[in-house]
Design a protein that fits this description.
The protein is globular. It is of the alpha/beta class. Helix 7 links the parallel strand 8 and strand 9. The protein has 14 helices and 12 strands. The chain is about 45% helix and about 15% strand. Helix 5 crosses helix 13. A 6-stranded mixed beta sheet has the order 1-2-3-5-4-6, with helices on both faces. Strands 9-8-7-10 form a 4-stranded parallel beta sheet. The protein binds nicotinamide-adenine-dinucleotide. The site of nicotinamide-adenine-dinucleotide (NAD) has 26 residues, from helix 5 and helix 6.
């Protein structure tokens, strides 16, 4: 059977490569954005979403892949940033043929982009993609992968919340603290369990009523409506559902001294970091506090292969990274989100400079010794 996958480049300034893959046979319509590979191959998840247009998908994949560069830079994973999106309703378009075509699209980049699980894609989907390309991470442990990243993301967020409590209240204990979680999915529910174990009272909102009731039964989580969770009085608001929820409309409604959660791209616009700071709300920059999953996956690339102990040790550095950012933010009177962006940009620029210097210091062929 002939391969009907058509791959075309989409030129985008500031991105190393952006490609569109369209396969009429399987119905695949996908975009991969490789933002930056200065620090290593671009690793980022594969998202499936019913985007209204390709323009909307392109906007999302660009934003997400840039975020991955920043996240990996600050977390020192040795990886660059990329992301992939499949346009379509997961209930309608998922098929083996579609994922095999996606695998061929990933493979066409020759390892410059490495894919992983993300919203609406699962390890089972990745197993199919793996048949068409080796550039896949986050497979099951039994298959040599690092497994589901969500518990590791939740662990990092939990440690980050404790660091934030320590920063604001001078005591990092969760005992007696009120913590409101928006979105009790894979990360939110694991986070809720850790917080309850540590003595916090946890409130949760989710579109999935069943999940909330189960958590209420299992750990005593207090269900709250979707509209209430953002404005309820609490010690920490932990957004673990969607991005862009911190905006001009929502920020004035917050009734918390801390925002620290797992969702990506929480600030609708970078300026919302300042809006939070002006209201005296301590913000844990999203891509710093939620790096546990990518840190765990990155350990797959270590010389000896995946080792959970190595992953946990690295995740346990998240509180220190946050404290450093909050210190810079205080000293330089900038929002923590800006401090994080500056740090990430500096790490990438320094590595780019070092690579250039190394390339320049190699003598021309005829002058090399030996
Ligand atoms: P998930 O899909 O398992 O959970 C998200 C939950 O949010 C779902 O239960 C959903 O019903 C709920 N939800 C959606 N809209 C909501 C709303 N308006 N109000 C309340 N709840 C709502 O996803 P996840 O893997 O737990 O990830 C959560 C967030 O963290 C996402 O933004 C994801 O990008 C980010 N993140 C996840 C990881 C990871 O390791 N899974 C790593 C880094 C960042």
């Amino acid at each position: 059977m002939t391969d009907t996958l058509q791959i075309t480049d989409i030129p985008v300034a500031g991105y190393e490569r952006v490609v569109r893959g369209v396969d009429p046979q399987s119905g695949l319509h996908a975009i991969i954005a490789v933002h930056d590979t200065t620090l290593g191959p671009a690793l980022g998840g594969l998202r499936m979403w019913p985007y209204a247009s390709e323009e909307e998908a392109l906007f999302d994949v660009k934003r997400l892949s840039r975020g991955m560069t920043y996240k990996s830079a600050v977390a020192k994973t040795g990886l660059g940033g990329g992301k992939a999106v499949i346009l379509g309703d997961p209930k309608k378009v998922k098929s083996e043929a579609l994922y095999l075509a996606m695998g061929r699209l990933v493979d066409s980049l020759g390892g410059k982009y490495i894919t992983a699980e993300d919203v609406n894609t699962s390890v089972a989907d990745l197993e199919i993609i793996r048949r068409a390309t080796k550039h896949v991470t986050g497979l099951e442990r039994k298959d040599g992968g690092s497994g589901n990243p969500s518990p590791y993301t939740a662990y990092g967020v939990f440690l980050g919340i404790r660091a934030a409590l320590g920063w604001v209240f001078g005591d990092d204990s969760c005992k007696g603290r009120k913590i409101a979680i928006q979105g009790t999915g894979a990360v939110g529910s694991a986070l809720a369990k850790r917080l309850v174990d540590a003595g916090a009272t946890v409130y949760g909102a989710d579109r999935n009523e069943e999940r909330l009731q189960q958590l209420q039964k299992e750990i005593g989580l207090v269900p709250v409506s979707e509209s209430e969770i953002l404005s309820m009085q609490c010690d920490v608001f932990a957004p673990c559902a969607l991005g862009a929820i911190l905006n001009d409309e929502s920020i004035p409604k917050l009734n918390t001294p801390i925002v620290a959660g797992a969702a990506n791209n929480l600030l609708l616009e970078p300026r919302h970091g300042k809006v939070l700071a002006d209201r005296n709300v301590l913000y844990a920059p999203d891509y710093v506090i939620n790096a546990g999953g990518i840190i765990n996956v990155s350990v797959e690339f270590h010389p000896g292969g995946y080792d959970e102990k190595v992953a946990l040790t690295k995740i346990e550095r998240i509180p220190q990274a946050l404290k450093e950012l909050w210190t810079i933010a205080k000293e330089e009177r900038i929002p923590p989100s800006d401090a994080a962006d500056r740090l990430a940009e500096r790490i990438v620029a320094d590595a780019r400079g070092a690579k250039k210097d190394a390339a320049c210091s190699v003598p021309p062929k005829g002058q090399r010794r030996g």
